[in-house]
Amino acid sequence: MAQLTRRAVVASAVGVAGMAALGVAAATSPWTVPLGTPAATPTLVKLARSRFAPHLGLAFTARSGDSLHTLVLERIDDLPGAGSSDEQRFNLIFTETGKAVTDGIYQVSRDGAEPATLFLSAIGAERERRLQGLVDQSV
Q: What global pTM score does this model have?
C-alpha cells in the first residue's frame, strides 16, 4: 500500500498550482483567441522593394528601445544574383544625420510608409559610413 508523505503532498500541490497558472496565462494571453471569434493575431507584412522605392531620398525615424535616430534612405541596391525587379531581395542603404547608430534591430518608419523592423549594420569607412538593411526573403 502506498504511503502518503508530506513531500508527495507538497509536490502535488505545486504541480496543480503550476497547471492552474498555465491555464490562466493561456486564457489571458494576447496570442490566444476565444473559440468563435476571428483571429486577432498580428499580420506579418512582407518587406518589398516597391514599399521603399517611393521614399528614396527621404528621412526615416529609426527607433531601438530609448534610442531614436534620423536616417535618410540614400539608395536601394540589388543583391548579387537579383535584378532590380526582384521585390524580395534588396539592400536598403541609409545615411546617418546625427550621432552614430550602432548595429542592431530598429523599427524604421516615416509618415506615409508602413513601419518596418530591420537589422541595420554599419558599412563603409568611418567618414563615409552608411547603414545597411539587407532584405532577402527568397527562402
A: 0.65
The helix or strand, by DSSP H or E, that contains position 6, with its residue range, turns out to be helix 6-28
- Write the CA distances from 81 to 97, 124, 135, integer angstroms: 31, 22, 13
Q: Which residues pair with 131 in a beta bridge?
A: 94, 122
- Does the structure show a pLDDT above 90 at 21? no
Kindly report, residue by residue over 25-47, the tens digit of the pLDDT: 444 433 344 444 555 544 555 78
For cell 550621432, the residue is: 99
Closest among 66, 115, 65, 124 to 94, alpha carbons compared: 124
62: burial class by Cβ within 10 Å (0-12, 13-18, 19+)? buried
Query: 75: phi > 0 → left, psi -120 to 50 → alpha, else beta; which?
Result: beta
Which spans in 29-127 are helix H?
49-52
- Give Cβ neighbours of residue 103 (< 8 Å, ≥ 6 apart): 119, 120, 121, 122
Q: Where are the domains of the chain?
A: 49-136
